[in-house]
């Protein structure tokens, strides 16, 4: 099974010719010349490929929801609004091998019957937009885009759309609003984009990595793809590794790889930097619950934790987390959980669209309380207040940003309450912003030998 | 038609009806509150989250419960749907949370706010709010500004229901104000200092659930409960001409459109009727406006028992017990 | 100061690009071009969007000016006030903070003698902190124009300041000037 990053080190792989020499655009040829659109969809279903943007929804099923009876045009929109803190895999993929996304877009658009497709890229990635536009021009010059692709009846126009700086546009309906030239306010659902998406027409929105994975699924069959991985976590996944590790970067792993191996093997993160100890990991982008070292390495049942949708969520939110977007943020023993959480919450406060009240008001409230605690002005009651505010946001908002803001708060307090209490009890000791770098936090219970 | 059960009461409604409107057909306590939804303005709703309810059974065909609370104002009913509003502790808790969120940055300046006494947020806080605040941070503030010579915008009081922007979009053809910035910095604004100036702009005041948009011609004239509201009409070539005159003695202090029992205007009025006819002689007086007896406005009251209405109320109850489609009440005779 | 009296009108070449962008969307959906065109307008008209510039964009797209204000004020990349020639945007979210973003910000403040949100007296630099730019594996990092500067150290910051000062060019999201620092 071909890997997404298989040819990443081939010089010139970002150009059409080199990419083509290494098997590029074969899936377009195969799909357009030998398969019906439904057969392509069927392969994607068989592959078990799950949405790589964060929610992990089966991609084939999402495709099958597309309203094919409507007489309106259908659209495929690629979500390249990668903005979840800790996630940078799509940028890496688009920068290094832009053609794999273009190829995936053509093959997928064919399967969905889209005649115009858009790639919505976050505005800050403007240089990536230039790379994609160049790749599109090359593909067009070689007959893979435009009218009658490869001499078939199928025609496709593909455009790149820049965002303007808004995390919320990674939410698919906010993305569609933004693509229509509006504020990125998520829509109320139903209707779902599959029925009324872009310009109120049937639309599929997929992440960059999801669409790119379609190439090898079509080339080598869904069944082949499904052989990789474990259980319902099929295929490979790009993991963005950041934080206190020796080798930050993007790694393509087979789902099912043990977390411990991912953190400590030289093939991946290469262990914790500066010879320090692992303290905590946010495994799937800033939104997912943080886990302390012991729970990220092993589940509550004592089994090794694996990099898969199921294993990471083993134990629910009490002792587990989520694979999310694969943004793997590692913290060593000097990291302050409260300060890290404050930066996350500040992020959600900054990125809330402001449309619905729990998120608009709640994210700012949590940020202010966390700011106080971190800077030594907190009260003991603030900790439970945070838990309660998070609870009142979670599940009550228009879009998942509310949940994304609530989960980090709830989980940090669930697993590291003592550290919050320490900030309240010893305000003088946390005055220096680098407090735990001077002396790592030690649980008082541990010190007392309990 | 779809049969839906809300808090144990069954009602049959037209397909496509929202849960909120189904509840309104039942009436009474089971009706969820609504701060942003406005039935006469298209696409409103879903934002404030006070109308959240729990769907314990999705439909007869697919009885699975919905995983999260849903905005009743924007969720259509399905045949066989079972909904909990006031019978769900989860709903009441969430609603209490939303009210708290709406209040943390609200100035609570009711003593000097013209909306006091007819404020949806005040009523909501009375029913669902907590007695004490847990919010000790600084409240968000904005300068108050004039948007046009007749409307004062107190952004600090705004709950961002977006209703006024829908009025501008749907009742006028030149919207000059909107929501700018984002998150908790969002504000209703013209961005540049520009007057909202068109024949129907005054309706923004009536649809505002709080005191964010107030009528400058009424500002600080009187507490609303010291006025006598009268139903009145005049021949107007721009609008229906059906209004409420808020009077003190022979003085007309304010003219507004008529609101139904859910505080919604069904027939909008023009600015000429609203601002330019503050004279009793310009109007045909129909009689006292019916005001809900729980409202502070009815405290000094003068309204005689309306036998006709009482009869309608009783008939309504009887019909309701039979599960019939209910007529609108509180519509003053034209 | 010829920059300030530039008339608010795209050059023929830019207008041609704008018209091509509008054609990417179905008939009647020209508002879809708003974000790309605002980016172009910001690059053309001194790095920020004044009200006349936004009104000009509204007229090109046949939409109401308030629709442009609403959108431009929603997205963080659009500057609604003038900024320095080089807008330095330092990422400060979790992963960058873990690897020393605070030190980078502090160093900039010291070197440029301004606080976050301020512009140097000579109008050369505006310092801004931003939320996650999707470059966590190369943290700490900053963006200046369309260029990402990654794996920052205080020494690299010094070099960058010198480089930007000597090139004396306005940073823009639309053009890449990226060189290794």
TrEMBL record, chain A:
Top-level taxon in the UniProt lineage: Bacteria
Cofactor: FMN; [4Fe-4S] cluster
NADH-ubiquinone oxidoreductase 51kDa subunit iron-sulphur binding domain residues: 338-383
UniProt cross-references to Pfam families, sorted A to Z: Complex1_51K, NADH_4Fe-4S
SUPFAM superfamilies on file: Nqo1 FMN-binding domain-like, Nqo1 middle domain-like, Nqo1C-terminal domain-like
Family affiliation: Belongs to the complex I 51 kDa subunit family.
Keywords (A to Z) from UniProt: 4Fe-4S, Flavoprotein, FMN, Iron, Iron-sulfur, Metal-binding, NAD, Oxidoreductase, Quinone, Translocase
InterPro entries, per the entry: NADH-UbQ_OxRdtase_51kDa_CS, NADH-UbQ_OxRdtase_suF, Nuo51_FMN-bd, Nuo51_FMN-bd_sf, Nuop51_4Fe4S-bd, Nuop51_4Fe4S-bd_sf
Protein task: NDH-1 shuttles electrons from NADH, via FMN and iron-sulfur (Fe-S) centers, to quinones in the respiratory chain.
Name of the featured protein: NADH-quinone oxidoreductase subunit F
GO molecular function list: NADH dehydrogenase (quinone) (non-electrogenic) activity
EC number: 7.1.1.-
Catalytic activity field: a quinone + NADH + 5 H(+)(in) = a quinol + NAD(+) + 4 H(+)(out)
UniProtKB/TrEMBL annotation, chain B:
Domain 4Fe-4S His(Cys)3-ligated-type, residue spans: 90-129
InterPro entries cross-referenced by the UniProt entry: 2Fe-2S_ferredoxin-like_sf (IPR036010), 2Fe-2S_ferredoxin-type (IPR001041), NADH_UbQ_OxRdtase_ferredoxin (IPR054351), NADH_UbQ_OxRdtase_Gsu_4Fe4S-bd (IPR019574), Prok_molybdopt-oxidoreductase (IPR050123)
Taxonomic superkingdom: Bacteria
Residues of the 2Fe-2S ferredoxin-type domain: 2-89
Listed Pfam families: Fer2_4, Fer4_Nqo3, NADH-G_4Fe-4S_3
Record field: transmembrane: none
Keyword annotations: 4Fe-4S, Iron, Iron-sulfur, Metal-binding
Protein's UniProt name: 2Fe-2S iron-sulfur cluster-binding protein
UniProtKB/TrEMBL annotation, chain C:
Matching InterPro entries: NuoE-like (IPR002023), NuoE_dom (IPR042128), NuoE_N (IPR041921), Thioredoxin-like_sf (IPR036249)
MF (Gene Ontology): NADH dehydrogenase (quinone) (non-electrogenic) activity
Catalytic EC class: oxidoreductase
CC cofactor: [2Fe-2S] cluster
Oxidoreductase found in the keyword field: yes
EC number: 1.6.5.9
CDD domains, per the entry: TRX_Fd_NuoE
Keywords: 2Fe-2S, Iron, Iron-sulfur, Metal-binding, Oxidoreductase
The keyword Oxidoreductase is annotated on this UniProt entry: yes
Transmembrane intervals: none
Gene3D superfamilies per record: Glutaredoxin, NADH-quinone oxidoreductase subunit E
Homology family: Belongs to the complex I 24 kDa subunit family.
Protein name per UniProt: NADH-quinone oxidoreductase subunit NuoE
Organism for this UniProt entry: Ohtaekwangia kribbensis
């Amino acid at each position: 099974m071909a890997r997404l990053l298989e040819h990443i080190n081939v010089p010139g792989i970002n150009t059409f010719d080199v990419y083509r020499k290494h098997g590029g655009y074969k899936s377009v040829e195969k799909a357009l010349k030998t398969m019906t659109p439904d057969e392509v969809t069927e392969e994607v279903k068989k592959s078990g490929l799950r949405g790589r943007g964060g929610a992990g929804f089966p991609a084939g099923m999402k495709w099958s929801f597309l309203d094919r009876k409507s007489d309106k045009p259908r659209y495929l929109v690629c979500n390249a609004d990668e903005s979840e803190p800790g996630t940078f895999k799509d940028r890496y993929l688009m920068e290094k091998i832009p053609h794999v996304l273009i190829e995936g877009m053509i093959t997928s658009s064919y399967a969905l019957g889209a005649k115009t497709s858009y790639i919505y890229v976050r505005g800050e990635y403007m240089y990536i937009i230039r790379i994609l536009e160049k790749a599109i021009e090359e593909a067009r010059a070689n007959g893979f885009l435009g009218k009658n692709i490869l001499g078939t009846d199928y025609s496709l126009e593909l455009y790149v759309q820049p965002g303007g700086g808004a995390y919320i546009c990674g939410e698919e309906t906010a993305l569609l609003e933004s693509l229509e030239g509006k504020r990125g306010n998520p829509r109320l659902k139903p209707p779902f984009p599959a029925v009324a998406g872009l310009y109120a027409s049937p639309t599929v929105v997929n992440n960059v990595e999801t669409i790119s994975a379609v190439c090898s699924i079509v080339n080598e069959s869904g069944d082949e793809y499904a052989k990789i991985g474990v259980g319902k976590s099929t295929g490979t996944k790009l993991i963005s590794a950041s934080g206190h590790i020796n080798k930050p970067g993007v790694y393509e792993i087979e789902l099912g790889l043990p977390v411990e191996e991912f953190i400590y093997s030289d093939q991946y993160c290469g262990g914790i930097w500066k010879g320090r100890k692992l303290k905590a990991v946010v495994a799937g982008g800033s939104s997912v619950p943080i886990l302390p070292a012991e729970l990220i390495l092993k589940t509550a049942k004592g089994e090794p934790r694996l990099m898969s949708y199921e294993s990471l969520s083993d134990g629910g939110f009490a002792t587990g987390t989520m694979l999310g977007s694969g943004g793997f943020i590692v913290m060593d023993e000097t990291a302050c959980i409260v300060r890290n959480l404050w930066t996350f919450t500040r992020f959600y406060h900054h990125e809330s669209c402001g449309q619905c009240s729990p998120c608009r008001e709640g994210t700012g409230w949590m940020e202010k309380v966390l700011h106080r605690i971190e800077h030594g002005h907190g009260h003991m009651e603030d900790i439970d207040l945070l838990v309660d505010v998070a609870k009142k946001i979670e599940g009550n908002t228009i879009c998942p940003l509310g949940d994304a803001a609530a989960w980090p708060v709830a989980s940090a307090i669930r697993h590291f309450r003592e550290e919050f209490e320490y900030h309240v009890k010893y305000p003088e000791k946390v005055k220096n912003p680098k407090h735990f770098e001077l002396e790592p936090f030690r649980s008082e219970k541990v010190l007392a030998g309990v | 038609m779809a049969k839906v059960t809300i808090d144990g009461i069954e009602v049959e409604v037209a397909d496509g009806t929202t849960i909120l409107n189904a509840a309104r057909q039942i009436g009474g306590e089971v009706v969820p509150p609504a701060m942003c939804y406005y039935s006469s303005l298209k696409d409103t709703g879903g934002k404030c989250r006070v109308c959240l309810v729990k769907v314990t059974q999705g439909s007869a065909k697919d009885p699975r419960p919905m995983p999260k609370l849903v905005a009743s104002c924007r969720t259509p009913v399905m045949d066989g749907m079972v909904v909990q509003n006031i019978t769900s502790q989860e709903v009441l808790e969430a609603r209490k949370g939303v009210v708290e969120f709406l209040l943390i940055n609200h100035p609570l300046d009711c003593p000097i706010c013209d909306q006091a006494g007819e404020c949806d947020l005040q009523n909501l806080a009375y029913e669902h709010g907590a007695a004490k605040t847990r919010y000790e941070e600084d409240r968000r503030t904005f300068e108050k500004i004039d948007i046009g010579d007749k409307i004062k915008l107190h952004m600090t009081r705004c709950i961002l229901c977006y209703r006024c922007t829908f009025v501008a979009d749907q009742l006028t053809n030149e919207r000059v104000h909107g929501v700018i910035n984002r998150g908790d910095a969002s504000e209703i604004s013209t961005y540049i200092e520009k007057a909202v100036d068109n024949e129907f702009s005054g309706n923004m005041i009536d649809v505002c659930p709080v005191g964010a948009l107030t009528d400058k011609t009424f500002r600080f004239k009187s507490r609303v409960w010291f006025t006598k509201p009268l139903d009145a009409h005049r021949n107007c070539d721009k609008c229906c001409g059906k209004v409420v005159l808020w009077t003190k003695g022979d003085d007309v202090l304010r003219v507004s459109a008529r609101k139904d029992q859910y505080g919604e205007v069904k027939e909008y009025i023009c600015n000429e009727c609203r601002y330019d006819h503050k004279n009793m002689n310009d109007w045909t007086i129909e009689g006292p406006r019916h005001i809900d007896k729980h409202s502070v406005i009815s405290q000094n009251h003068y309204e005689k028992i309306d036998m006709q209405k009482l009869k309608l109320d009783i008939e309504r109850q009887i019909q309701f017990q039979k599960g019939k489609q209910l007529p609108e009440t509180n519509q003053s005779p034209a | 100061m010829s920059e300030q009296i530039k008339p608010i009108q795209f050059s023929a070449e830019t207008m041609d690009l704008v018209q091509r962008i509008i054609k990417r969307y179905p008939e009647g959906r020209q508002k879809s071009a708003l974000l790309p065109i605002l980016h172009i307008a910001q690059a053309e008209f001194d790095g920020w969007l004044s009200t006349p510039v936004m009104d000009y964009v509204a007229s090109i797209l046949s939409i109401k000016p308030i629709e442009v204000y609403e959108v431009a004020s929603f997205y963080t990349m659009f500057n609604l006030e003038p900024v320095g020639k080089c807008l330095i945007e330092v990422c400060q979210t979790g992963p960058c903070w873990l690897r020393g973003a605070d030190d980078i910000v502090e160093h900039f403040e010291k070197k440029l003698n301004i606080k976050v949100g301020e512009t140097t007296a000579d109008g050369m630099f505006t310092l801004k902190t931003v939320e996650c730019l999707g470059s966590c594996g190369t943290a700490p990092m900053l963006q200046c124009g369309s260029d990402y500067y990654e794996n920052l150290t205080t020494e690299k910051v010094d070099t960058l300041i010198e480089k930007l000062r000597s090139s004396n060019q306005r940073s823009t999201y639309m053009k890449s000037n990226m060189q290794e620092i």
